Inverse folding.
């Protein structure tokens, strides 16, 4: 029975269902007391969820049973790395090399520490999820592998039928199954970052605020209001929300779509963005005005300044630098609308241009 539960949990982790693995294991905690595999699997699952407190607790329990397992040492190195204690983390990676000289995770982690000893850079690796490359490996994602094997012909036919016979329309149903982004019971109990001294936050939110903002982001996404979803994501990423919440925000952000002039919802004004730019990073806007100081760069890219609100040549709301990957077809003596994504350049708001529109009438 014990082996069966461990196997079930491991299968869940191989499919990247970490919350499900935690549920399976914790339900049998009394049976697995003093079982190394139980504690190490639970610790690794908590690492991938982003609950480092629970991960550390289970790693300590596992260490009392066996001290030389490389998964244990890799996990403990991550805990110290997150605290900024690179010296202790490096020692654990060197211990891994002693027991397993060919361990590539330890090799890469040691190189990372040598070139990124700055705590801010380490924090960025945790915030973006890049740090997972140094976690104990789980092997290929079995869930993803299974679906890759699904007959490609059926998929292609389905897509072909959809585009050939179904008229284009706004999708009003669920856009994507976000079950994996649901907050676990553990995450709901630990919505806030515990250590507020190691970094600064632009927004200090209560647990209730974090929960509400995350729910809003999910709801906005499902209703097709990507700009509003992005704004909630930005609020959380720049707040004292826990690492696991921020990690799920990054995943949700990867699902947001590039809009067109016709599909963009919830356009934000220049004034809104200028007042609180961090909230609008990566949001899409349509701003109108007139262009000046345009230039085609040697690599073929195009830059200009947009005089926002100056389409009638009366008032200027603001001046924004705009960058296109290639030169758009523009008439400099006419008003223009630019669809672009908000970015920062030298702490100033800029637009990454995607499309332009000018009336055929002068």
């Amino acid at each position: 029975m014990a082996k069966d539960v461990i196997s079930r949990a491991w299968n869940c982790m191989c499919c990247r269902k970490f919350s499900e693995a935690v549920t399976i294991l914790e339900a049998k905690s009394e049976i697995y007391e003093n079982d190394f595999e139980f504690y190490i699997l639970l610790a690794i699952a908590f690492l991938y969820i982003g609950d480092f407190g629970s991960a550390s607790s289970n790693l300590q329990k596992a260490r009392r049973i066996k001290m030389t397992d490389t998964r244990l040492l890799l996990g403990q190195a991550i805990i110290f790395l997150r605290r900024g204690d690179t010296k202790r983390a490096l020692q654990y990676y060197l211990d891994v090399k002693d027991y397993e000289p060919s361990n590539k995770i330890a090799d890469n982690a040691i190189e990372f520490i040598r070139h990124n000893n700055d705590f801010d850079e380490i924090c960025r690796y945790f915030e973006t999820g890049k740090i997972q490359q140094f976690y104990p490996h789980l092997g290929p994602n079995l869930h993803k592998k299974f679906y890759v094997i699904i007959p490609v012909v059926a998929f292609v036919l389905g897509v072909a039928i959809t585009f050939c016979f179904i008229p284009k329309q706004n999708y009003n149903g669920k856009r994507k199954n976000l079950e994996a982004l649901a907050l676990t019971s553990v995450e709901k109990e630990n919505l806030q970052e515990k250590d507020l001294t190691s970094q600064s936050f632009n927004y200090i939110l209560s647990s209730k605020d974090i929960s509400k903002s995350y729910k809003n982001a999910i709801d906005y996404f499902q209703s097709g209001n990507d700009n509003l979803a992005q704004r909630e994501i930005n609020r959380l990423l720049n707040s004292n929300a826990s690492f696991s919440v921020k990690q799920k925000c990054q995943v949700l952000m990867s699902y947001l779509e590039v809009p067109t002039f016709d599909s963009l919802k919830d356009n934000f004004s220049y004034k809104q963005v200028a007042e609180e730019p961090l909230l609008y990073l990566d949001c899409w806007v349509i701003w109108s005005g007139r262009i000046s100081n345009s230039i085609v760069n040697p690599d073929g890219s195009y830059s200009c300044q947009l005089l926002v609100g100056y389409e009638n040549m009366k008032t200027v709301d603001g001046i924004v630098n705009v960058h296109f990957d290639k030169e758009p077809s523009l008439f400099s003596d006419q008003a223009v609308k630019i669809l672009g994504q908000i970015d920062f350049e030298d702490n100033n708001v800029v637009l990454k241009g995607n499309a332009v529109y000018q009336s055929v009438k002068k």
The beta strands are 284-296, 302-308, 318-324, 336-345, 348-357.
